[in-house]
Specification:
Order of helices and strands: HHHHH
Distance between the termini: 49 Å
Shape: elongated
Number of domains: 2
Number of strands: 0
Oligomer: single chain
Structural class: mainly alpha
Radius of gyration: 29 Å
CATH class of the largest domain: Alpha Beta
CATH topology of the largest domain: Alpha-Beta Plaits
Strand content: under 5%
Helix content: over 70%
Amino acid sequence: MTITLAPLITALFLTKKRINEGLMILLYASYMVLLAIRTNREYSLLVEKQFSLTKLNQEDGFTGIFNRRFFDKPLDNVWKTTISSQTSLMLVLIDIDFFKKVNDQCGHAVGDQVIKNVAAIIQNYCRRENDIAT
């Protein structure tokens, strides 16, 4: 809106007597448009950084699945819903048996890959809206 009004207002002031006022209005309008563009760009970058930080804060960098910090809030919401609707809730804890032997016999690089593969398999089975692998 400012972009379309600035030339119109400037044209009204561009007479021989008021050329200085017209130029000042045009300069001010241009400054405000550039300031708005800069502010919008900075805000967009800030939102992107905030999104990235939130994702880093909630995701395990090693396995790529959600971490415990993320898990607490959905669990609280699902727990309250489960109690109020008197439905059931299932929580599965998984332990990789004899994992130390994998690390000892095959090395930590293979053990790391086993953990990543197990996490991917678990994530693959989380298909419903409230299914969370963490």
